Amino acid sequence: MAFELPALAYATDALEPHIDKMTMEIHHGKHHQAYVDNLNKALAGTDSANAKIEDILKSISKFPMPVRNNGGGHYNHSLYWSIMSPNGVGSPSGDLAKAIDSAFGTFDAFKQKFAEAGTTRFGSGWAWLCLKADGTLCVCSTPNQDNPLMDIAECPGTPLLGMDVWEHAYYLKYQNKRPDYIAAFWNVVNWTAVAERFAKAK
Ligand code: MN
To answer: Can you give the pTM of this predicted structure?
Structure first.
């Protein structure tokens, strides 16, 4: 079965005013669709055409660059849509809140570190909150469509929260003001979804 574009769990205008409808339409319907199509093209007729995307990413060093770029693009965007919600709440709770406090001191200190990872990523890429193999949380960023699941990652881990900082994620509304997009992003984070990823990854 070929990879498919996942449907959004909310309308394209549901994240307004923080993320605008046109950005969502183009980002999901055009950019993500292109990653899916190009991933399918790159894997067509190979043993990995029916593999799980996570398994492909974990051995990405064995694949050609189009699989790395488009497989990463497909996984990263699927995660990104799933950790946003029009009913985003202010902060995490329970075990996730405890793990964040223990790794970063406070929730605000975590937010600052995560925002910094996104702001200082030169060019295109992603900021991540990850669970490391030792059971602790970390913040990092990756270039292009790389991610911490990949066996080439400098910061290996299981992604719990990912923020797209490619210009296509914010340029229509925020132009060159990436920090404004990052500040707005906190209003649409679905901490319930992040906590579910955390519970599953542990
Ligand atoms: Mn994107």
So the answer is: 0.97
